[in-house]
Amino acid sequence: MDITHRKPPGSRPVVVAPVVAAVAAVALLAAPAATATTTAPSASAASTGSTLARGGGRAAAPGTVVAVEARGGMTAAEVSLSLREADIDASRVRYGATWYRVLYRTTDSAGAPTTASQLVVLPHTRRATLPVVSWLHGTTVHRDEVASVNPASNDRRAALLFASTGRAVSAPDYVGLGRGEGFHPYGDPAATVSAAVDGLRAARALARSTGRDLAREVLISGFSQGGPATMLVGRALREQGRDPYFRAGALAPVAGPFALSAFEAAAADDAVDHAPLYLAYFATAWNRMYGLYDTPAEAFRAPYDQRIEELFDGRHSARDLKEALPATSRELFTPAFLDRIRKPDGDLARRLRVLDHTCDWRPAVPVRLFHGSGDQDVVFAHARHCAAQPERNRADHVLTDVGAVDHNTSVKRALPLVVDFFDRRRP
Known about the structure:
The chain starts with 18 loop residues before the first helix and ends with a helix. It contains 15 helices and ten strands.
């Protein structure tokens, strides 16, 4: 789960522009280029603009583009530099790319219509039908610390890496993060799948406005929280017919908490790094969705019960939260609530069980799991737990240990390997 220490940048002003002008600008910025060295707008030349698309009102269908709020371009050299600055292998970079922040319609954890945001990246290639990657990010507590808003986000770097290999990328911020509405329904399966699938639909609409299209087969990858999300979205597209056009083509989850019951129990026992933050995020989000407690005092000790829901309002950074919370779950939570997390029952146990079995199906496409054996946020046993499920279902899967590295380093090591895996899936 990607808990970073960066303070997200302030939001940039958005200038309203006519629909026709914005579509023309999108088409211009996404114009394909011949080679990896082709000229494109520099990262420092990002522009802003807001456009209400036709049908983008509150009753619009899921996947409808509401607005293209910002856009910018990077050359292959600029993408490579950005990756190297984050210690991510840039040797796979071949093309520059144009990125867009896109608002689109989707549904929340209650199934109600809402607006979410995402980063869409289109490569500077001449290909008319683009291979497509869905990149699903890890735990993010501040709504602006996402790929579509923060240019320093490693999730933006991941999206740029995939785009630089000639693929379109849809990187949803999820519901309640970025420029979306409401709160983030942390880990909710329905909202996770909706944000990703509707994000793909919106990305395809954007690509088609530039005279290109997205391929039907989606290559899906995600880190930490995005690991189980990868398996949920893959199943929704592959087995459940969630979209009439898109189908899962390959799955590559990285360092995911695939046994959520065990993860939360370990957080209750302070047996994982950043345990109070993870468990408090889980408790406050799941209380908003499912009702875990009647008052914060049932779950949180004083004085934390007075401020806890304010702290997890999407406007506090991970650093803010670590400064405001105690060092251990034992100091933060009541003994009764910790016991309930260790031994869940009823509706809580049922909902956790769903997220203990996101890998428990038989994909007709290859699954490649990546995890670091030195991870102390999400321990390597989670990868083994996931791998055992496709093994039992006789599915094509491989688990790769990327080394004795921490949680956030594991994704940096895994990303080039995911690119290589996807390259072998080229039509």
